[in-house]
C-alpha cells in the first residue's frame, strides 16, 4: 500500500463518523452512473459504445471501488486486499494489452473528482463539519493513491514477466542459431516470431571478453544477446548495413569484443566459431587488441595459421629441424633473418633495413642458413612451408611470449643448461 502507517493505525479512516456509510449506500448506483458517464466523456479510451465487455469491466471496477470505500468508512479495519488485488490485475491486463496506465490513471482522477463533488453536496445537506469533510477528502486521496499504486505494481510485474519470457525466447533462439549442425529453418522462423525478432538476410556473431567498464553494454533491440554464456555472445542483424558498424562499435565500447564474419542467417555457427577463435588468439596475445572492436575478417591469415596448431607445430618440427642443434638465441636470430629474407624477395639489403642491422651481418647469417638448409631454400614449396611456420613462430614470440622450436633434439643453452627444442 502507498501509506502503511495510515493503513495499520486505521487513521484517517477512523476519524470518519460510521453513520456516513449509511447515508452513502443508497446513492451508490447513482454515483456509479455519474462516474462512468464522466469517465467516458473525458477519457477517450473508455468511450467504447460497441464494446459491451469493456463497458462491463468499467462498471465492475467503479462499483467495486465505491462499495469498498463505503464498507471501509463503516469499518476502518475492512480488508483492502480484494480491491487492491483487483486493480493489480487491471494493471497486469493493461500491460498484457500493450497499453500504458495513462488512461486508467486519468479515469481514476475523473472518478475521484465526481466522488468528491457528490460527497461535498451530501455534506452540505447533512451539515457535516469542516473537520469531518477534510478527513473524507484525505481518505479519498489516500484510497486513490493506494489503487494507483496497486495498478502500477501489477503493470510492472506483467512487464517484467513479459520481458523475462521474451529474453528466454531470444536466448533459446541464439542457441538454435549457434547449433552445429544448424536447427531446422522452420524451427528458427517459429521461435524468431515468438521472440519478436525479424529474420534478417545476413548476420554477424560477436564473442565478448572482459568488460573494461563497470556498466553493462546496451545493445540495439534487434541484437540477440546472451551475456550469461561461458563466452558471452551476440548476433547482429544486417551488420554491413548503413551505419551499422559505427552503431556496433559504440555499443561495445569498453568491452573486449570480436565480430565474426558476415554470413547468411543459417551459417551463424560458423561466424561465432571464427569470433571465438579470434577472441582466444587475442586473449593469448597472438592477435593484438590495440583499441576498438576486433573483426575476424581482418585477421584471416592468422586464423588460418592457427586453425590447427598441432599441424603447424608438426610442420615446424619438420622444416626447422636444421636449427635444432643451435642455442635458442641463435635460433631466434636465424629464424628472424630467414623470415625477413622470404618476405623481401630474398634481397639482403632489404632484410638489413627490416631488421635494422648491417647488410654484412645479414649476409653472414644468410650464409649460415644456406649451410643449414642447403637446397631446401631453392625449392618454392619448401620456402612456402618455411614462411608459414616462421610467421606462426614470430606471432607467438612477439605477442604471446610462446615459441615454436624443433622438439626432437637437445642442445646446450646460453647459460649452459640443456634446452629441449619444442613449443614452450
Automatic annotation (TrEMBL):
<dbReference type="Pfam" id="PF25906">
    <property type="entry name" value="PucR-like_N"/>
</dbReference>
<dbReference type="InterPro" id="IPR058663">
    <property type="entry name" value="PucR-like_N"/>
</dbReference>
<dbReference type="InterPro" id="IPR051448">
    <property type="entry name" value="CdaR-like_regulators"/>
</dbReference>
<dbReference type="InterPro" id="IPR042070">
    <property type="entry name" value="PucR_C-HTH_sf"/>
</dbReference>
<protein>
    <submittedName>
        <fullName>PucR family transcriptional regulator</fullName>
    </submittedName>
</protein>
<dbReference type="Pfam" id="PF13556">
    <property type="entry name" value="HTH_30"/>
</dbReference>
<feature type="domain" description="PucR-like N-terminal">
    <location>
        <begin position="13"/>
        <end position="177"/>
    </location>
</feature>
<dbReference type="InterPro" id="IPR025736">
    <property type="entry name" value="PucR_C-HTH_dom"/>
</dbReference>
<feature type="domain" description="PucR C-terminal helix-turn-helix">
    <location>
        <begin position="334"/>
        <end position="392"/>
    </location>
</feature>
Amino acid at each position: 500500500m502507498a501509506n502503511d502507517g495510515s493503513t495499520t493505525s486505521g487513521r484517517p479512516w477512523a476519524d470518519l463518523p460510521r453513520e456516513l456509510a449509511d447515508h452513502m449506500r443508497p446513492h451508490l448506483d447513482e454515483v456509479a452512473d455519474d462516474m462512468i458517464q464522466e469517465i467516458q466523456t473525458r477519457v477517450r479510451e473508455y468511450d467504447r459504445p460497441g464494446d459491451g465487455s469493456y463497458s462491463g469491466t468499467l462498471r465492475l471496477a467503479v462499483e467495486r471501488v465505491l462499495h469498498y470505500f463505503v464498507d471501509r468508512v463503516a469499518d476502518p479495519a475492512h480488508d483492502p486486499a480484494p480491491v487492491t488485488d483487483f486493480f493489480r490485475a487491471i494493471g497486469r491486463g493493461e500491460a498484457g494489452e500493450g497499453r500504458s496506465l495513462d488512461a486508467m490513471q486519468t479515469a481514476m482522477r475523473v472518478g475521484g473528482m465526481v466522488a468528491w463533488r457528490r460527497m461535498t453536496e451530501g455534506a452540505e445537506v447533512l451539515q457535516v463539519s469542516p473537520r469531518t469533510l477534510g478527513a473524507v477528502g484525505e481518505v479519498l486521496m489516500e484510497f486513490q493513491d493506494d489503487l494507483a499504486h496497486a495498478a502500477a505494481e501489477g503493470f510492472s510485474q506483467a512487464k517484467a514477466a513479459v520481458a523475462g519470457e521474451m529474453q528466454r525466447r531470444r536466448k533459446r533462439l541464439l542457441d538454435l542459431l549457434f547449433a552445429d549442425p544448424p536447427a531446422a529453418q522452420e524451427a528458427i522462423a517459429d521461435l524468431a516470431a515468438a521472440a519478436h525478432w525479424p529474420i534478417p538476410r545476413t548476420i554477424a556473431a560477436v564473442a565478448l571478453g572482459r568488460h573494461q567498464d563497470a556498466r553493462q553494454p546496451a545493445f540495439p533491440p534487434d541484437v540477440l544477446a546472451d551475456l550469461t554464456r561461458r563466452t558471452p555472445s551476440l548476433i547482429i542483424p544486417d551488420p554491413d548495413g548503413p551505419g551499422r558498424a559505427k552503431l556496433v562499435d559504440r555499443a561495445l565500447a569498453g568491452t573486449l569484443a570480436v565480430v565474426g564474419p558476415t554470413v547468411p542467417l543459417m551459417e551463424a555457427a560458423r561466424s561465432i566459431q571464427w569470433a571465438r577463435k579470434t577472441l582466444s588468439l587475442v586473449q593469448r596475445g597472438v592477435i593484438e587488441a590495440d583499441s576498438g572492436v576486433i573483426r575476424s575478417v581482418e585477421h584471416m591469415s592468422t586464423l588460418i595459421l592457427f586453425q590447427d596448431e598441432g599441424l603447424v607445430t608438426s610442420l615446424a618440427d619438420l622444416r626447422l629441424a636444421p636449427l635444432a642443434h643451435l642455442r635458442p638465441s641463435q635460433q631466434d636470430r636465424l629464424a628472424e633473418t630467414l623470415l625477413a629474407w622470404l618476405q623481401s624477395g630474398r634481397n639482403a639489403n632489404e632484410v638489413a633495413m627490416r631488421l635494422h642491422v648491417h647488410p654484412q651481418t645479414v649476409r653472414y647469417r644468410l650464409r649460415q642458413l644456406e649451410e643449414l638448409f642447403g637446397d631446401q631454400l631453392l625449392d618454392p614449396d619448401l620456402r612456402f612451408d618455411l614462411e608459414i611456420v616462421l610467421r606462426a613462430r614470430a606471432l607467438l614470440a612477439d605477442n604471446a611470449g610462446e615459441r615454436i622450436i624443433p622438439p626432437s633434439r637437445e642442445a646446450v643453452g646460453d647459460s649452459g643448461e640443456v634446452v629441449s627444442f619444442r613449443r614452450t
